[in-house]
């Protein structure tokens, strides 16, 4: 099966009250862990690549690794650019085989965001590539840029209809209190479901995207700390909140940090337990297996998209 865009997946996810997992990838082991999990759970998948991942691993390598995964598994997979920050970057990914892109103009004014997003949509349309836009701004770290809590803003429901209508975007990322990275909440986890509900009313049958949706799995935080890491009070989004969002209008849930934590925890443990280990295959194998376990858990218990491929 060739790569697909997100249109059909989102239509089914919206109707079925579940969400598609969008997992960030940077190398072969991560791609293998994610796609093997999807294969075992027969789940549709979005594999996403950030500008930083593309710089690290090289566009062609990542595309070819995902194509290799497609030969191994016969599932609907979209290859998506995460947080594209310019028309040129989106164009390069569209021309280079991606089936979906995000243009993140959330740091711009409303009018500038519309103009940039519209430009990407116009270009993508002819190539059958779907486009995700963003309104509102999450706190946390994206590609080395830190957005402070003070600079983060919730999405205004009053703006969403005009934004979607004038840009023609296929899906919309919103800010309701999640953030990027491993430190999402200082105290109790709180998401603005009232905003999500209002947006759902303003945009009926329209797919919403939730970024910053790692749960920051305590077992991996503990393991990293046990083997010399210093993650302190890292805290993520409770799974029941994500399940609730998936039953509402959220059709795409972005997860990166949980995979990084699982991978890092296993590598730290493997190296600490055998200080003479200098074989990357020996410390990357448990890391890849942990990614697969995390993704399987998400597909079944968080996204509830198992069996939906
Ligand atoms: O939202 C950002 C993703 O977690 C990607 O992170 O830009 O460090 O690859 P990155
Ligand atoms: P996390 O940092 O919560 O995994 O969020 C990832 C994300 O939103 C990628 O776009
Ligand atoms: Zn994000």
Can you offer a commentary on this structure?
This protein is an alpha/beta fold. It is about 50% helix and about 15% strand. It contains 12 helices and 10 strands. It has an 8-stranded parallel beta barrel, surrounded by 9 helices. It has a two-stranded antiparallel sheet with strand order 6-7. Helix 2 packs parallel to helix 4, helix 2 packs parallel to helix 12 and helix 11 packs antiparallel against helix 12. The longest helix is centred in the last third of the chain and has 23 residues. It is globular. The mean pLDDT is about 95. The chain binds glyceraldehyde-3-phosphate, 1,3-dihydroxyacetonephosphate and zinc ion (ZN). Glyceraldehyde-3-phosphate binds next to helix 3 and strand 3.
Summary?
The protein has 309 residues and is of the alpha/beta class. The protein has twelve helices and ten strands.
- Please report the number of helical segments: 12
Assign a percent range to the helix content: 40-55%
How large, in whole angstroms, is the Cα Rg? Answer: 18 Å
Reading side by side through the largest sheet, how are the strands ordered?
Answer: 1-2-3-4-5-8-9-10
Hetero groups in this structure are: glyceraldehyde-3-phosphate, 1,3-dihydroxyacetonephosphate, zinc ion
Strand content: 15-25%
What is the rounded distance between the termini?
12 Å
Report the biggest beta sheet as strand number plus sense, adding barrel if it closes. 8 strands, parallel, barrel
Write down the overall mean pLDDT: 96
3D shape: globular
Number of strands: 10
Output the structural class.
alpha/beta
- Name the poorly predicted regions: none
Order of helices and strands: HEHEHHEHEHEEEHEHEHHEHH
């Amino acid at each position: 099966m060739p790569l697909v865009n997100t249109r059909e997946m989102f239509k089914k996810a919206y109707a079925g009250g579940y969400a598609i997992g969008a997992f960030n990838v940077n190398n072969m082991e991560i791609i293998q862990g994610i796609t093997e999990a999807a294969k075992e759970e027969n789940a549709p998948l979005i594999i996403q690549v950030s500008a930083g991942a593309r710089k690290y691993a090289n566009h062609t390598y990542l595309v070819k690794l995902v194509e290799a995964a497609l030969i191994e598994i016969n599932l609907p997979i979209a290859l998506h650019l995460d947080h594209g920050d310019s028309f040129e970057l989106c164009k390069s990914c569209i021309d280079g085989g991606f089936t979906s892109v995000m243009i993140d103009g959330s740091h711009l004014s409303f009018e500038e965001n519309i103009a940039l997003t519209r430009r990407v949509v116009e270009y993508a349309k002819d190539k059958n590539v779907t486009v995700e836009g963003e309104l509102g701004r999450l706190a946390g770290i994206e590609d080395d840029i830190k957005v402070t809590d003070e600079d983060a803003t919730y999405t205004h429901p009053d703006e969403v209809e005009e934004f979607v209508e004038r840009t023609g975007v296929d899906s919309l990322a919103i800010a309701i209190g999640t953030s990027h990275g491993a430190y999402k909440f200082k105290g109790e986890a709180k998401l603005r479901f009232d905003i999500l509900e209002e947006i759902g009313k303003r945009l009926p049958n329209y797919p919403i995207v939730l970024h910053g949706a790692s749960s920051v799995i305590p077992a991996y935080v503990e393991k990293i700390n046990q083997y010399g890491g210093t993650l302190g009070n890292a805290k993520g989004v409770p799974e029941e909140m994500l399940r609730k969002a998936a039953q509402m209008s959220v059709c795409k849930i972005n997860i990166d940090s949980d995979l990084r934590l699982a991978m890092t925890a296993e590598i730290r443990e493997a190296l600490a337990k055998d200080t003479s280990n200098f074989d990357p295959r020996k410390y990357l194998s448990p890391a890849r297996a942990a990614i697969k376990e995390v993704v399987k858990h998400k597909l079944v218990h968080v996204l509830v998209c198992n069996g939906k491929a």
